[in-house]
Write a structure and sequence with these properties.
binds S-adenosyl-L-homocysteine; alpha/beta; single chain; 7-stranded mixed beta sheet; disordered N terminus; 47% helix; Rossmann fold; 7 strands
């Protein structure tokens, strides 16, 4: 275990997570310019749905909100909170509190400032922590979600065991993840690992890990096609602003982003899917580790 930054109050961050943190420290500003404060894909209902990207992204957040039924006085754990926009939306829509964790220090600062600006800092807070080693006591949360953070987790089992530990029995967990449903070549898997810092295990593996951590799977939605327009729109935005963006964020960062889009699309073409999964922590499994 190594410590990424030595900032006060920081928990230990594992080596692979440190790489992910570095990537987000480098790219979050650019991603925010292209994607807005939601660092996740959008959701479109079909080819005729001409909803703009920002609204489509909020729609995916709302699909997650609907799946974790909390209200005032309860608390959501947001695993991989980005710059906090989905957490703030959850808090506004449900009246519940949220604690978000991320391994990128710049995101903690940005998310905390956003909570303050929204007047929600009394019930929405963000901390620097590794989802695989949470600095929270057992049974302290009423629900959890992981919106586009699971693909980065080098040990999904550890993250799910930690979620099970800090959630009250019977709590709901919603997450999005990628999985392998077809033949991804060695090269494609290496590109996912090395360029996007993600892995796409077989679909059955996530179900097994959830079960082993004490969760019953309630729903698995394959939303690959409904979210795919995100890469197309992002590519267009990158191409349209290439010169200016390269000047501001460095040509290397812009190129990295373009390569990431290609790697994702290529993997989807031959067998990667984007899943939205909802699960419930079994009553007897609360506190299991
Ligand atoms: N859920 C947010 C951000 C998605 S981007 C949104 O939808 O806007 C992925 C996020 O996962 C980033 O914030 C990244 O820092 C976080 N992340 C990746 N690995 C992590 C880990 N091991 N522990 C905590 N957060 C992690």
């Amino acid at each position: 275990m190594t410590t990424a930054t030595g900032e006060p109050g920081m928990t230990d961050i594992s080596e692979p997570a440190t790489d992910v943190a570095r990537m987000y420290e480098r790219t979050t500003a650019l991603v925010e310019v292209i994607w807005g404060p939601n660092l996740h894909f959008g959701y479109w209902t079909g080819p005729d749905d001409d909803t703009g990207k920002d609204l489509a992204q909020e729609r995916l957040t709302d699909m997650m909100v609907e799946r974790v039924p909390l209200g005032p006085g309860q608390r959501l754990l947001d695993l991989g909170c980005g710059v906090g926009h989905p957490a703030l939306r959850f808090a506004r829509r449900t009246g519940a509190g949220v604690v978000g964790v991320t391994i990128a220090p710049g995101q903690v600062r940005a998310a905390t400032a956003a909570a303050r600006a929204a007047g929600l800092h009394d019930r929405v807070a963000f901390e620097l922590a590794d989802a695989a080693a949470l600095p929270f006591p057992d049974d302290g949360f009423d629900g959890a979600w992981a919106l586009e953070s699971m693909p980065h987790m080098s040990d999904r089992g550890a993250v799910l065991r930690e979620a099970a530990r800090v959630l009250r029995p019977g709590s709901t967990l919603a997450l999005t993840d990628v999985a392998r449903c077809g033949p991804l070549s060695e090269r494609q898997q290496r590109d996912l690992r090395e360029r996007m810092l993600i892995t796409a295990p077989p679909r059955s593996e996530l179900a097994e890990l959830l079960d082993a951590a004490g969760f019953d799977v309630l729903e698995v939605l394959d939303i690959t096609r409904s979210t795919l327009r995100t890469t197309e729109l992002t590519r267009q935005a990158l191409e349209a602003g290439a010169v200016e963006l390269s000047g501001r964020y460095g040509a290397e960062t812009v190129e990295h982003m373009a390569r990431v889009l290609d790697v994702y699309d290529d993997a989807v073409r031959t067998g990667m899917e984007y899943l939205l999964v909802t699960a419930r922590l079994r009553p007897a499994a609360g506190g299991a580790s």
